[in-house]
Design goal:
Length: 208
């Protein structure tokens, strides 16, 4: 291993340590109540090192969200599967993502942080899971457009409806009542949601 490769590997490891610590602390304590000094200490780095990787705390939070979504999207995108299988897997993974206590904690952290700057609130779209929405919508839209280019104009709306339906059966009861579905019930809820969505968007030519 060359010296440059060693340095690159060490840099990736430090960045991963910072993201892991930030994910845990933000979900447990909220955004406002976690200082950069605390984040650095939990990650085992200096504050100066943290700022070499992330411009500020907002950028670090955004990176945590990006990493969580990227794991879901990449896992589905790499599968040589049919449209139906990819849609099912993506929907289930998204529902599981929204049922993760760390993710729900992150959403609570931002939604409840009334002292965040308005620009930061706008950037992260402080309305529940909209902080995770762009990548999901993009992936679903691409899948539908690839399957039927003639329906490209409707693909984004189809994605938004599917995402909203998944959030209704997962995130809403979690945020409002702290109720988490067991895995088998979650999978059943996803199946029902997908079946209804398919009838509207895949078996017909478009929305009624």
């Amino acid at each position: 291993m060359s010296l440059q490769e060693f340095r690159d590997n060490r840099a990736r490891a430090k960045r991963a340590d910072i993201l892991d610590a930030a994910s845990r602390l933000f979900s447990e304590r909220g955004f406002r109540d976690v200082s950069t000094a605390t984040l650095a200490a939990q990650a085992g780095v200096s504050t100066a090192t943290l700022y070499r990787y992330f411009e500020d705390k907002e950028a670090l939070f955004a990176a945590v969200v990006d990493a969580l979504v990227a794991d879901v999207i990449q896992a589905v995108a790499n599968q040589p599967a049919s449209l139906e299988d990819k849609l099912h897997d993506l929907a289930l993974r998204y529902a599981l993502l929204l049922s993760d206590t760390v993710v729900v904690g992150l959403i609570r952290a931002v939604v409840s942080d009334s002292q965040s700057s308005s620009g930061f609130r706008d950037q992260l779209a402080l309305h529940g899971s909209e902080i995770f929405a762009d990548e999901f919508d993009s992936e679903i839209t691409d899948l539908l457009t690839e399957q039927n280019p003639a329906e490209a104009a409707n693909a984004l709306q189809a994605s938004i409806e599917l995402r909203g339906a998944l959030e209704h059966v997962t995130l809403l009861p979690e945020l409002l009542f702290n109720e988490y579905l067991p895995r088998d019930e979650l999978e059943s809820a996803v199946e029902r949601t997908l079946a209804s969505w398919r009838r509207r968007w895949l078996e017909d030519t478009g929305p009624e």
